[in-house]
Each structure stands twice: as structure tokens, then as C-alpha cells.
Amino acid sequence: MARVLIVDDSPTEAHILTGMLEKNGHQVITAPDGESGIASAKANHPDVILMDVVMPGLNGFQATRQLKKDSATSSIPIIIVSTKSQATDRVWGMRQGANDYITKPVDEASLLESVNNVLGS
């Protein structure tokens, strides 16, 4: 079981992801935007972060970059979960420090596989 931080400005998306993860035994924390996602990551030190890209204020790419630059959070694996499905988006996300990149709508099997992969289980 992992503690997963979901950073997504869409309550619907966060709810869908939470359902998939909790059904499979994971504990979920949510944050509605990049700024609170960073604060939550520092406070809760989750095992993995699911990061949306398109959010008001700090976007997911910026938040990922900040988390990876901070020694307190740099070791937390980040999976970008985005509607942005272009190869350039994926490359840019990985370049910001993301450990994986999956596109919405999220398929439960793909999500769990990605979470297990970044956790090394």
C-alpha cells in the first residue's frame, strides 16, 4: 500500500483517480493546484505523486520541476497524468523530472502499473 498525492484541479478527475487507487489498497491525499500540491508533498511526504498539467497558477510541469529541485521532495516519484497527449508534452514532462507520464482518460490497469513501476514493486 502506498500513500499517493493527487494534484488535480478537477474534483471529478481527483475522485476517479482516488476511487481506482483506494479500491486497490492505496491511501490518497489530494491537492487542488500546484502550490498546495507542493505544500502537501512537503508536509505529508507521499510515496508517489500523480500530477495534472493544466491547472490555474502553478502548472504541473512547474510544480514537478520545483519538487524535483527541493532536496526534501526530490526523491518522491512523480507521474504526470494529463490530457496533453502529444509526444512533445511527454518529453517535456520527463525533462522536468517526472518518472512517468500517462494520459487521461486514465485506464485503471495503466495507472496501477505506472504506480507499481515507479515504486519499484
Task: Describe the secondary structure blueprint for this structure.
Blueprint: E1 3-7, H1 11-23, E2 27-31, H2 34-44, E3 48-51, H3 60-69, E4 78-82, H4 87-95, E5 100-103, H5 108-119
Parallel strand pairs: 1-2, 1-3, 3-4, 4-5
Helix pairs in contact: 2-3
Structure keywords:
alpha/beta, 121 residues, single chain, 45% helix
What do you see in this structure?
This protein is of the alpha/beta class and 121 residues long. 45% of the residues lie in helices and 19% in strands. Strand 4 (78-82), helix 4 (87-95) and strand 5 form a beta-alpha-beta unit. Helix 2 (34-44) packs parallel to helix 3 (60-69). The termini are close together. The mean pLDDT is 97.
